[in-house]
Amino acid sequence: MNIVIIGAGNLATQLGLALKDAGQEVVQVYSRTKESAKLLADRLSCAWTISTNDILEDADYYIFSVKDSVLELLINEVCKKKSKGTFLHTAGSMPYDIFKAKVKCYGVLYPLQTFSKERKVDFKEIPIFIEGSTVEAYRRLQILAELLSPKIYPLTSEARRYLHLAAVWACNFTNHCYTIAQDVLEREQISFEVLLPLINETARKVNEVKPNKAQTGPAVRYDRNVIEKQINLMESSPLQQELYKLLSKSIHKMNSNKNT
């Protein structure tokens, strides 16, 4: 099958590499910037363009992997001259029918994972959620998804919004907390590496124990003495203080409700 990838960011890069590893031919990459388009195209050994007018018209699949803010605009530009092929996006919070009235065969392929351009991931371990406009569109999406992972699940656009929300809490906000922890340690010239065993054990634990059963720390019992001392340590960062207070209140409330 011939595949065109619209986008050259983190997910587009890893998706393209995974498709190449699966023996599929990515024939073209589109990006708004020459540098990004050429960089990914070189890794995939394919053509590239920075003009939507030059996107190939005879591909089997068109994969839109771009920011939500430009997705609809690009769909309007790319789809207006194309009637064949299967069109799909990879966004967690955008509906599948954003393609409606533009093309006939369309849907969503949403891999639930965090991606970076230079960090290769094993797609076989990644759950992929798909939704199609018709039975035939779903079948085509399933064929594509099964090249990447055995973990394929149907999911509606509405349910996917909540899945994406959960992923933001579990991944993006968690990583932000790591960044704050790194900032705290660096101010005291302590290596972030000393936290890695703690971080790794916390992640491993939720494979065996539900998160609400695994919660520890001063906020569980709302140890005011510890909490107030730690808030004072962040007096140079009012935003961090507010985050600490809000998270502590949330942890304490959830654990209080659990025990009632």
TrEMBL record:
It comes from the Bacteria. Pfam families: DUF2520, F420_oxidored. InterPro entries: 6-PGluconate_DH-like_C_sf (IPR008927), DUF2520 (IPR018931), NAD(P)-bd_dom_sf (IPR036291), P5C_Rdtase_cat_N (IPR028939), TM1727-like_C_sf (IPR037108). Residues 3-87 form the Pyrroline-5-carboxylate reductase catalytic N-terminal domain. Residues 126-251 form the DUF2520 domain. This is DUF2520 domain-containing protein. It comes from Prevotella bivia DSM 20514.
